[in-house]
Amino acid sequence: MKNRWIANIILGLAFLNSCHTPHSQKKIFRLNQVQGVESLDPAFAKNLNIMWHVHQTYNRLIEYDEQMNVQPSLAKRWEISEDRKTYRFYLRNDVFFHDNEAFPNGKGRKMNAGDIVYSFQRIIDPQVASPGAWIFNDRVDSIQPFIAVNDTLFEIHLSQPFNPMLGILSMQYCSVVPKEVVEKWGKDFRSHPCGTGPFVFHEWEEAVAITYRKNERYWEKDSAGMPLPYIDGIKASFIDSKATEFLLFMQGDLDFMNGIDATFKDQVLTKQGELKAGFQEKLVLHKHPYLNVEYLGILLDTAQNENQLLQHKKIRQAINYGFDRNKMITYLRNHIGIPAHSGMIPASLPGYDSVLVKGYYYNPDKAKALIDEVRTELGELPAITLLSNDNYSDRCNFIASQLGLLGLSINVEIMQPSLLREQMSQSQAPFFWATWIADYPDAESYLTMFYGKNTAPPNYTRFKNETFDRLYEQCLVEKDEAKKISLFQQMDRIIIEEAPCIPLFYDEVLHFTPKWVSNWKSNSLNLIELKYVKLLR
Asked: CA-to-CA distance for 231 and 56, rounded, in angstroms?
């Protein structure tokens, strides 16, 4: 009640002050990031906060559009060899790095294939210690993985075929950087970024704000031949309060808000996930699938998991049957997200098919019958502890409450996020809440979580299944797209049957913009595309 009272006061103040903040003459797009940013170096683009900045400043060989279709970027076109081990990229010849004092006369030079070799070698260089080294380790040729054939022809050589490689190359880790600038600034390159992207770094006041200017020499144009970007710059602030962020947004001091704090959710959104009437004249809600699956994981390593009850497949299946995902999404998330009634492959990825891959629906009778079967076998069932962090305790308590009515006792234990991740990685979390955001738009990014030869991360459940592993290895080299999707679905059905996890929902991106923002674009990886944005005031 106290939170709701505070929310109503903030909403009232916001409406009183909205539309009274004038824009400066220049068109500067203003956003806030509650969690801040650790680095602007693409080799350390390990989370979404950093990725958003890298995406504005740098380019990669290829990109994914709003519909998650692969598009040319620095590479005009590409070829894949018959053995699927060589990828050849034909580069643009009109792309320049941003101006920087590391270049002669401070003028940015033309990007070439050697820059891509340098950028990729840097990712796997142990001295750099990039958290993105895994994208190439054990996948590229150990002797000569990256080759600049000439200035406009680049090749990457794999040790064995790996179908998701194009997706890997679209990741922010694979942004192209100039050697001169990296070497000039050394470790301080984190705060002196220089790329070929639509916006040029201007200033970073740590923990306060980062500003960018329009790249006047940017190479990309829109469909009408007009140069991009349209706006003059970006200002990203780092106010660490979602409540303050919301107030600033409603006052017109921000042009964008990512998601909404639970305190304001019910005041702004209907239970169907739409804007309430009082906000429709001022705001635009952008909602679409997000490659993020929220789930509960179960540790299946019997040597590490003392709770033998969770080793019973019938109990794992009972948990899946025993709570109402539709009700959870409607009342706890205002219909933001798609109930996970299929497997672990989320909506919007090839392989997702709610007809061919049937998951779990709310069936309390079935769940109770399975629990009773195990009780008959074991006697009185001990309580199960579910580990979560405070941000997600509402759905965990909801699930525990519904299962409690069926005779399965679950205690929710709240932990610090960092401690929970550590315990998951060390096989010390028998039953845990988790979320998995795709690194690239390929179902393999989710199925790799259950490949028996993987440790944690990503295989936090320590799931091992010979049939699954064989199908997984086959999908990495399968040339036929339809056959590859069929393999994905076969693996997803194994996950459903064996139930090493309980999928909760497939997430959705939730972006808010005021009416004066147009041409808003983002994709299912939640990458915002500011080069197309127009500010109409």
From this structure: 12
Map out the domains of the chain as residue ranges.
1-34+198-282+515-537, 41-190, 290-508
Task: Given CATH 3.40.190.10, say whether it is the number of domain 1-34+198-282+515-537.
Answer: yes
Reported as a pLDDT band with limits 50, 70 and 90, residue 105 is: very high
Mean pLDDT of 485-498: 98
Q: Are 195 and 98 in contact (CB under 8 A)?
A: yes
Residue among 336, 265, 333 at smallest CA distance from 509: 336
This prediction has a pTM of 0.90
Helix (H) or strand (E) segment spanning residue 76 = strand 75-80
Q: What is the mean pLDDT of residues 475-496?
A: 96
Q: Which two tokens stand for residue 251?
A: 């006052």
Alpha-helical runs (H) found in 476-516: 481-498
Neighbours of 419 (CB within 10 A): 13
Domain 290-508 belongs in CATH node 3.40.640.10: no
Reported as a pLDDT band with limits 50, 70 and 90, residue 303 is: confident
Distance CA 374, CA 148 (A): 62
| Surface-to-core class of residue 211, CB atoms within 10 Å of its CB (0-12 exposed, 13-18 middle, 19+ buried) | middle
Q: CATH topology for 41-190?
A: Dipeptide-binding Protein; domain 1 (3.90.76)
What is the SS3 string spanning 200-256? EEEEEECCCEEEEEECCCCCCECCCCCECCCCCEEEEECCCCHHHHHHHHHHCCCCC
